[in-house]
Automatic annotation (TrEMBL):
Residues 365-389 are annotated as: Disordered. PANTHER family: GLYCEROL DEHYDROGENASE, GLYCEROL DEHYDROGENASE 1. One of its GO terms (molecular function) is glycerol dehydrogenase (NAD+) activity. NAD(+) binds at D39, G96, S97, T98, I99, D100, T118, V119, A120, S121, S127, L129, Y133. Binds 1 zinc ion per subunit. It comes from the Bacteria. Its EC number is 1.1.1.6. This is Glycerol dehydrogenase. Residues 10-156 form the Alcohol dehydrogenase iron-type/glycerol dehydrogenase GldA domain. Keywords: Metal-binding, NAD, Oxidoreductase, Zinc. Pathway: Polyol metabolism; glycerol fermentation; glycerone phosphate from glycerol (oxidative route): step 1/2. Glycerol binds at D123, D173, H256, H273. The keyword Oxidoreductase applies. It comes from Thermobifida fusca TM51.
Amino acid sequence: MPTTRSLLAPGRYVQGRGVLADLGTYVAAIGSVPLILADPVVRQLTEATVTESFRQAGLAVRFEEFGGIPTAAEARRVADVLSDRGCDVIIGLGGGSTIDTAKAAGDNAGIRWVSVPTVASTDAPTSALSVVYSEEGVFETYRFYSRNPDLVLVDTQLVANAPARFLVSGIGDALATWIEARAVQRANGPTLAGGMATHTGIALAKLSWDLLWENALPAVEAVRSNLVTPAVEAVVEANTLLSGLGFESGGLAAAHSVHDGLTVVPHTHHLMHGEKVNIGSITQLILEAAAAEEIREFIEFTARLGLPTTLTEAGLDHVDDEVLRMVVEAALAPEETIHNLPFSVSENDLLDALKMVEELGRSVRAEAGLPEPRAPQEERPPVPAARMA
Ligand SMILES: NC(=O)c1ccc[n+]([C@@H]2O[C@H](COP(=O)([O-])OP(=O)(O)OC[C@H]3O[C@@H](n4cnc5c(N)ncnc54)[C@H](O)[C@@H]3O)[C@@H](O)[C@H]2O)c1
Ligand SMILES: [Zn+2]
């Protein structure tokens, strides 16, 4: 049983409309030979602003194209580029996958790293870890670092200009933070920061939750029209900073294990990280025997936001038990955080809880007058990925 308590945080957090124009000034305080890792979509959106900002700060602009999947091999490739060019700081510019790869490459090359999320879709930007996947997009492992990013910079206008689905997904990721942190606290379990949670870590997870219940619906509405309102600023902070500090220093439990399990079957690959996590949050609430009213409120709230609340939306309606068992087995792997719950979970417990997500998701939607859940449009893959290899 761990007896120490720990909190991790990035060196500096900067958020605001138009702050991308100041990136050069902040980066110049960290290193003098930067490399920017971005995919072509993000590069196109940001290159003019970043180039002008770096020019003003006296920094050379070098972009490197991110390959798309945060694998160990991609991190090694980017680390070689960093070493060849003598870079002393890497900037992960984009979504969680790019940012995780920038951290891994920076660590491989022994240099400092900066997160510049261009969507508020995950809590990856602040943490001292990366989530590593296989080429097929199946969860492999968490990789931990001895430091958090030196800087996290979020331009809220850029976030508001992106499709609202990214913000919604980030809300799904961030709502899980409090659900998981309070479960870990009940179990006196370990956090990803090492040791047990501080009161501060727990309070930040709760603040993220409270801000989201207050601001998520108006923020999503504003972002649909590309507007930056105080609600949008609050949600971006909750999704990025508070959820990041809260999950890393408050602990993960079942919601993220169910996410990891869902990545094993290709049926779910159309979903974003936070969308899969939302299925995990509902599953965890069911496993915990949370009050019926609490579960229903959570399902209704997240369904109104546009998050998936049924197996149908995850592409897993009417699938064989064999498919769901693959999800369950992966979610219960020994290194998974589901074992941080204050009780043990068997395969059958988890299988039934997953099936119950479908039942509850459908009935709550019907009662709330929300449309029936829709299955993804793509044709369903015939065989689970792990069996194809
Ligand atoms: N390390 C951590 O602590 C941590 C925490 C949570 C999630 N994650 C990881 O983050 C990853 C998911 O990240 P994600 O959900 O951001 O998806 P992603 O990074 O895989 O994809 C983001 C997509 O959005 C596009 N995009 C980015 N900015 C845009 C903009 N402004 N306008 C339009 N399009 C834009 C990109 O081109 C890309 O296609 C997963 O691998 C997950 O495991 C890591
Ligand atoms: Zn997450």
